[in-house]
Amino acid sequence: MVGIDIESATRFKNWSEQNLNRVFSKTEICYAKKFKNFYEHLAGFYCVKEALVKALNNKTLKFNEIEVLHTQTGKPYVSLNQQIKSQLSLSNFNEIEISISHSQGFAVAVVLLNKTKEK
Ligand SMILES: CC(C)(COP(=O)(O)OP(=O)(O)OC[C@H]1O[C@@H](n2cnc3c(N)ncnc32)[C@H](O)[C@@H]1OP(=O)(O)O)[C@@H](O)C(=O)NCCC(=O)NCCS
């Protein structure tokens, strides 16, 4: 299954700190603060959350239960709470791949849910 989303960074510029903390984790905010284009990075993480909702076809997911983290090389990946993980394994999806891009005030992300490979 697949999901995609696009967001403008300006959407987040007027958000209060409280609102930002409701949607983004401390780690996500801390990561984005390392860059000049803070809001573009946040917009990218938001896109991942929206794209995952689309891929899973589940609008009840809470965005603070989906966290975007990065490997040492900068590759993004998602960390999910136990409830979403259980939902994924019930539907036989065990791997989530994401890709983020941003430019000129916009961010996009694609999420792919892959089925467990047969051994
Ligand atoms: C990693 C790279 C592909 C990002 O591309 P970019 O056009 O600079 O930036 P984009 O906006 O498209 O992508 C940024 C996102 O890429 C993702 N990313 C970073 N490193 C990554 C990696 N190793 N693997 C997968 N995704 C990666 C991140 O999610 C990042 O967004 P985030 O930091 O907010 O999470 C780029 O910096 C790079 O290393 N390019 C190849 C090397 C190169 O520059 N060669 C030039 C030859 S002239």
Roughly how much helix do the residues carry, as a percent range?
Answer: 25-40%
What would the average pLDDT be, to the nearest integer?
A: 93
The unreliable regions are: none
Distance between the termini: 21 Å
Radius of gyration, Cα only, in angstroms?
14 Å
Largest sheet: 3 strands, antiparallel
What pattern of helices and strands is seen along the backbone? Answer: EHHHHEEHEE
CATH class bucket: Alpha Beta
Based on the structure given, which CATH architecture is correct? Alpha-Beta Complex
The main sheet orders its strands as 1-5-4
The beta-strand count equals: 5
CATH superfamily: 4'-phosphopantetheinyl transferase domain
Report the total helices: 5
List keywords for this structure.
single chain; 119 residues; alpha+beta; two-stranded antiparallel sheet; globular; binds coenzyme A
Characterization of this structure:
This protein is an alpha+beta fold and 119 residues long. The chain has one domain: Alpha-Beta Complex (Ribosomal Protein L22, Chain A), CATH 3.90.470. The chain is 39% helix and 32% strand. It has five helices and five strands, in the order E-H-H-H-H-E-E-H-E-E. The chain has helices at residues 10-13, 17-23, 26-32, 38-56, 82-90; strands at 2-8, 66-70, 76-80, 93-103, 106-115. Strands 1-5-4 form a three-stranded antiparallel sheet. The protein has a two-stranded antiparallel sheet with strand order 2-3. Helix 3 (26-32) packs across helix 4. The relative contact order is 0.23. It binds coenzyme A.
